[in-house]
Design goal:
The protein has 510 residues and is mainly alpha-helical. 71% of the residues lie in helices and 7% in strands. The protein has helices spanning 2-138, 142-200, 210-216, 221-230, 250-266, 271-300, 307-315, 326-343, 348-357, 372-382, 387-394, 406-419, 428-443, 471-488, and strands at residues 201-205, 233-235, 242-246, 320-321, 324-325, 448-454, 459-465, 496-502. The strands form three sheets. The chain has a three-stranded antiparallel β-sheet with strand order 1-3-2. The protein has a three-stranded mixed β-sheet with strand order 6-7-8, with helices on one face. The longest helix is centred in the first third of the chain and has 137 residues, at 2-138. The protein is flat.
Length: 510
């Protein structure tokens, strides 16, 4: 028993010793690790403090920059305010000075007006006194004297006017016939000269005058070959960088122009080459004529025409009548006929066909001695056009009797196309553009509400707002628009400007 107790005691003492030793060892080990951890924590703390200080320094620098920028803005704003304050003070001083000057001027003006009123009163007294003296001397009152003076002046003016009128009438009778003939001859010369030049001359431009010698050739053989092949007179003179092609057939002139262009571009100019190029160009022009005719009838929607009529329509491109291109005139007349026929309840396609064909007699191949309307009618009959179309073509100048309603429509539309302002010198697009320019020019003035170009451009209606312009200003506006049109635009004849101002009152009964 004692042995067991001793063993137990020994065991407990041994366990206690082992526990104490183990605890001591662990305590030393943990103390070392704790010291190391404390050192690492101290290092981390120092690093964090350095980072915080660096961030603080950066934030402080940024804040100082922002503060300095705001201070600069405030200083500039303060400087501007001071400058504006100085300007306002200066203006206030100027206004005060001007007000003082105006007050002084008003006082001077009042004094002058008082002097004028006194002078006027004195003059009235003198005038009344002189009138009384004159009445006493003449034995007549002022009204009676005026009436007698007016009667005598009327009688004298009547006698002088009758004498002057008689003299003018006698002079007019003596010179009227002579002056009328002179005016007519001058008008014919001016118009005929421009038309003849446009219809008979084409100018061919060249790069240098050296080419003229090559076109003439040795002893003139090249130019003679050109004239013989084209039937056009080629004029080579002192005109710089230009050669004149003269002839009354525009197709031949076009052939000569294109042939010259190809010869000059190619550089080989001799009689054999000239004949070859002229034949080639003539074929090209004939093809272009046919193509132009086809394109025209397709554009207008006219179908079933004989190929020869299509070729004649294409030839119109190279013809002109009184300065107006014949093909453009025919297209315009065709469109006008279609519109008018539709308004009257007739067939617009037939009317368009007749309008397109009405002047084909102006471009025949053999130039017979017949009026162009009759010749056009015969061509239409030859190529199986319907009788009403043939009659409309032949009767549009009253050479034959009108048998259908198409004839007067074609006649009227032909007159409209040829007689509208500017028709003889510009195409339809240019005519429409001129009307638009007229309307836009008037619209540019303040107070103008609407504008309408009417009477084929002979009159411009301008509608103004009644609340923007008074009656007096309408007269000034009309004169200003007329002057601006006269200075800035080109137009035939004269343009009438009518300014309309009206007041409208509108109410509704409910």
């Amino acid at each position: 028993m004692t042995t067991i107790i001793a063993s137990i005691v020994a065991l407990l003492v041994g366990g206690a010793l082992v526990w104490l030793s183990t605890r001591f060892v662990f305590k030393q080990k943990f103390a070392g690790r704790l010291a190391e951890a404390e050192k690492e924590a101290e290092v981390i703390k120092k690093n964090k403090l350095l980072e915080v200080k660096e961030k603080f320094v950066n934030l402080k620098a940024d804040l100082e920059k922002q503060v300095s920028a705001r201070n600069a803005k405030l200083q500039s704003a303060e400087a501007r305010l001071k400058q504006k304050e100085m300007m306002l003070n200066q203006r206030h001083e100027d206004l005060s000075r001007k007000n003082a000057e105006l007050d002084g001027a008003k006082e001077n003006l009042s004094a002058q007006l008082e002097v004028v009123e006194k002078k006027k009163a004195e003059l009235d007294k003198l005038h009344a006194r002189q009138t009384e003296q004159l009445e006493i001397l003449s034995g007549l009152s002022a009204e009676e004297a005026k009436e007698r003076l007016l009667e005598s002046m009327k009688e004298e003016a009547k006698s002088e006017a009758v004498s002057y009128v008689n003299e003018i009438m006698d002079e007019a009778k003596m010179t009227a016939n002579k002056e009328a003939k002179k005016i007519v001859i001058q008008s014919i010369q001016r118009v005929a000269t421009e038309t003849a030049i446009e219809n008979s001359v084409t100018v061919f431009h060249i790069d240098s005058d050296e080419i003229k010698g090559r076109i003439i050739g040795r002893e003139g053989r090249n130019i003679r070959a050109l004239e013989a092949a084209t039937g056009i007179e080629i004029v080579v003179d002192d005109t710089p960088e230009a050669i004149v092609l003269s002839g009354f057939d525009p197709v031949r002139r076009e052939v000569a122009r294109l042939a010259l262009h190809q010869l000059v571009q190619d550089g080989r100019i001799h009689p054999a080459r000239i004949e070859e190029v002229v034949n080639k160009v003539r074929k090209q022009v004939e093809d272009e004529v046919v193509e132009t005719g086809k394109r025209t009838v397709i554009d207008l929607g006219v179908h079933g025409l004989h190929p020869e009529l299509v070729r004649i329509i294409g030839k119109m491109k190279y013809r002109s009548s009184y300065g107006q291109n014949l093909l453009q005139h025919a297209r315009e007349t065709a469109n006008l006929c279609a519109v008018m026929a539709a308004e009257l309840g007739l067939n617009p396609k037939k009317a368009k066909r007749a309008g397109l064909l009405h002047d084909i007699g102006k471009v025949p191949d053999d130039e017979p001695e017949l009026p162009h309307a009759i010749l056009g009618m015969k061509l239409c009959e030859k190529y199986k056009e319907k009788p009403d179309i043939c009659n409309a073509v032949g009767a549009h100048h009253d050479e034959t009797e009108m048998q259908t309603l198409l004839a007067p429509i074609v006649q009227v539309c032909d007159a409209i196309s040829g007689a509208r302002p500017g028709a003889r010198r510009e195409i339809v697009e240019a005519y429409i553009k001129r009307l638009n320019d007229l309307e836009q020019l008037a619209l540019s003035y303040p107070g103008v509400v609407k504008t309408y170009a009417i009477q084929a451009g002979r009159e411009l209606r301008v509608i103004v707002g009644a609340d923007k312009i008074d009656d007096k200003e309408t007269e000034n506006l009309s004169n200003e628009i007329a002057k601006k049109i006269q200075d800035e635009m080109t137009y035939p004849g004269q343009v009438k400007i009518t300014v309309i101002r009206e007041t409208r009152a509108v109410s509704y009964a409910k």
